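Researcher: For the record, we're logging two predictions in this thread. I'll number them. Prediction 1 follows.
Model: Prediction 1, sequence and structure:
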Amino acid sequence: MKTETIKLNSLDDTRALAQKISEGLRPGSVVALTGPLGAGKTALSQAVAKALGVTEHLTSPTFTIVCEYETGRLPVYHFDVYRVHDEDELFEIGFDEYIHGKGVCLIEWADLIEDLLPENTVRIRLEYGDSEDERICTITTADSCDDGSGYIFTGER
């Protein structure tokens, strides 16, 4: 596993990180976002989707579990699994097809379904920093997914 920790001091920092992340995403990439409520999971998801060229506004799919966005360079499947109480709920909506599909899965509250995530999932943990706007972002990935860019990503090459 490789881990990198980055301080984000503004929304511009989040957008810059999202741009770097998006450049490494491929069909089949899974990005698992974790952290406390309000730490920036949705903001980072929105920024990654925008960096991938998604033109619609990415909203939190809390009550629908997943929202699909097809307008970018890759389809984006945005999950919020906070309210998932049983893994069968995910399988009923085709979770396997999403995570092994032709798009990118951005999964908020992914720690709740850790056992269902592929081995090469990019894990991003957001925590509150010392100041109100600061966030500490820890990115953890499998060594086997290194693309040589300084960030490690998954999916078909």
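Researcher: Logged. Prediction 2.
Model: Prediction 2, sequence and structure:
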Amino acid sequence: MTELERRNFLLWTAGSAFTLMTALFAKRGRAAVDALLDPSLGETQSPGKGNSGGGAKPASAPASGPASKPASKDGAQLKPGPQDDGSFVLDPANPPVPALKQEKGKPNGFYVKVGDDAVLVAQRDGKKGWVAIQAVCTHKKCTVNYEPDKNDFKCPCHGSTFSDAGKVQKGPAKDDLRAFATSEVKAPGGKTWVKIAKK
């Protein structure tokens, strides 16, 4: 084997090893995030069961009797859960199984999954609208809680706080959380559902 062939072989081997290590790291990092997410997100709780992840009170009572499905702006039938456009519709009176394990304290809202993102959706103090923020702290990946009296989010593990727009207010976290758009949609029986979407 010539010196040039040996160098080419070593370069090819090093490049292949780097590619393989990068792929394994990416897969393992994604698996760690996926381990936090609950695969049974699409399921909803039966009436009468407790809501282990939702500390907030329902915005309205469940509808009684049969009801028609509400139509979205484009005329399509809307129902709670993931939507075709990547958003998520939350029925606060019948929230889904939490999308994340709760670390400490009460979330004072509902953990849902919007696309690949775990999101904490909470009703503002005094029922003045809704706020939704990335649910996993950028510091050490703990799940954040909503503090309605302060209208901000707090990581119970190390004390980082974030505004309702996701901006870091107090460290140790240095990176902001992603904020999501929320809008109320009318549902059967006079109920109000919340649509959560990427901004």
